[in-house]
Structure formats: C-alpha cells, structure tokens
Amino acid sequence: MASALGPRAPLPLARLRGARALAMAPPRRFALELPGCGLAHFAVGGDAAGALDPRVAALLGPPGRSYSLCVPEAPGGGCAARVRAARLHQRLLHQLRRDPLRRCQLRRLLCYGPGGGAGGVQRGFLLRDPGDSPDTRRALFSLLGDAPGGPRLGEFVGDARQQVWQSLWELRDGAEWRQVGPRERVLAAPEPALHPVVPDLPSSGVFPHREAARAVLEACIPFIPEAQAVLDLVDQLPEQVHKGKFPVIAFEGLDATGKTTVTQSVSDTLGAVLLKSPPACISQWRKIFDDEPTIIRRAFYSLGNYIVASEIAKESTKSPVIIDRYWHSTATYAIATEVTGGLQYLPPAHHPIYQWPRDLLRPDLVLLLTVSPKKRMQRIEGRGVERTREEAELEADSMFRQK
Questions:
Q1: Which of 74, 120, 139, 217 is most deeply buried (CB count within 10 A of its CB)?
Q2: How is domain 203-402 classified at the CATH fold level?
Q3: Is this model's pTM higher than 0.90 or not?
Q4: Portions of the chain given CATH number 3.40.50.300
C-alpha cells in the first residue's frame, strides 16, 4: 500500500524530498476565495496591474499576517505529476487543519499564469494568522521540512495604507530558512474571462475520453492496488459500444432526491433492466477512491461509466434500460468541487467542458430529479448510513449544492 508518496494516510510533508512542493515563482496571478463565495484576483511583481482590492488587502495585510502555499506540478511530468501534486495538496490541507495551525484562517488559493491554459494552475491555500504569532511561521517551517533546495513559502506583509508585499522563504542546505529574492509588490490583476481551473478540467476531473481517465488510475497503481483491479475490468471492454434497439433512460439528481425509488418503480413498470453507476463490480472500492483527491475520484467514477456503458449496450438489445446516475454526476461533482467561488464562476452554457465524451454510449433520455432542501435533509437524516465526503459537503455547503 506504500509508495514514494507514502500510504493513504496523511504523512508529514517534511520527508517528501526534492519535491519543491510549495514554490511560487513570480510573476504569477492569484485567485483568492473571499467570504460570500466571491473571488479576487491579484498579482505579484511584474504582473501587477492596479490598486489592490481592499478586501484582499484586509486578508493579506496587518494587523494579522498571511502566508501562501501552492503545490506546483513537476514540469513535463504529465499525468503522474498531476496525481502526485493532487495528493500532496490534500495532505497539506490535512496538516494545516491540525494544531498549532488550526487556529489560523484557511482559504483556497489558486496560482496561475497570465495566459491561463491547461496545466498552468497551482492549487493551494492562503493561511491567515489574525494574531501574527511568530509560532505560525515556525510551525510552517517545521511542516515544510528539510527537502534539499527547500520548498519556498510566500509571506505577505502590509502597511496601514493597504499596500502589500510578498516575500519568499526557502530552505537552504536543509538547515536554515532564508528569504530569497527581492520583496515584490502585490497589486490587483484583471479577472480572466474564465475561471482559472476551467482549462485544466479535462485533465483533472471532466475527462473527455476513456484513455484520459485510464491514465490517472494507471499512475495510482503503486499506492492504490485496487486501481489495477479496476483497470483489468476496463481493459476487457471493447473500444466502442453501441446501444441496442430499446430505449435507455438515465436518472440524475442530488443524493436523497428519490432516484432509487423512482428508478426501481420505472424499471418495474417498463420491464426494464436497472443499472447503477458505479456498477456493482467496482462499488466495493468506492470508499477507497472517495478518500482520494478529485482527479483520482473522478477517474474511478469515469471508468465506472464505461463499464456501465458496456452493460447498457448488451442489455438494450433485449429490453429497455434504466440507469441510476451516469456521466452527468461524474462531471457535475468535478466542476462543483474544482471551480471555486459562486455560481457566476461556472463555465458558461455550451462551453466544451459540458460536451459528452466522444467514446461513451449516450442515453436516449435524461431525467433530473429535484426535491426541496428541507425534504432532502429529512430523507438523509432518516437513512442512518455512512456518507461520502462529497455527500457531507452537499449538506453543509449550500453553494456547493447550487453548483
């Protein structure tokens, strides 16, 4: 169960030698999630464009102190590098939520290039210490560890006029943390036409074809043995399958909207075969993949859709087919999780990210079930079953539900 990245449980980041996991090389642009689900964009150094948003200045400047931590991918590392970065980002989140850093405020932060583009986004965090305690910096130094060449840490300082600068810290020779390079001014940056993660989504969660999802699970084999079992099933599938003469109907909706009851009833009425995604042959591994970052979770569910598609092709030659969840859920959860901020930051209608995968069998009809939030909560509370992390987030975060 172990690998160069360690077991599934969170590990101290200090031993991820050579990772340079938190380096942030200006000029870069940043998207910071604000209270109320807004986003503010700012830049450091040569990329800076104008007066800083007062809300950003309040989060970066005095009386507290803030730190930036973002996880870059190794240049040219491909799918394996994206997987490593995603797992490191998740472990970093676990560490930042523990003592002594849990007293600080934690916000999602994205670092991206002015031109955007897939693979150019670094996911990370802004850590704000309202009390500006020197213990916070020491705790971060301890957390980031002694990797050769040293991961770098961004630290923001400001003045009473709401001017803010960023300094970078780096561990030298595995022994001493020092500030590196000049202190850079932080100023506003223009809001991009699309949310910075959107160009990255086809490689990080909304996979356009089977091979993209397959490559992710292939990179997971060293530390998730069950990934090989999933791939063995996928590799038995034909490259392309086609629907039979009978109709195929998919039912979608949030948890506790009645999909199980309705799909069973419609299936009985039509004499249809009832299928679910993920299919039974891989459902026993859901908990394992649900505990992993978005890119790994969505690859698992995406490949589950292709297994279901093969079953649909076979069964629809003999009878109607009803599906309880399909590609729509896989894509929806990925977009809602990765696109920070409110509804206004979702990709616009007809954006290519919403296009059906070119090699996945399509249903004839898709029905979306809805129910009032109050009724949905009553149903969830009455179930008494263990929920996934995303199901728990649906209950706690109204904006996530809306997205």
A1: 217
A2: Rossmann fold (3.40.50)
A3: no
A4: 203-402
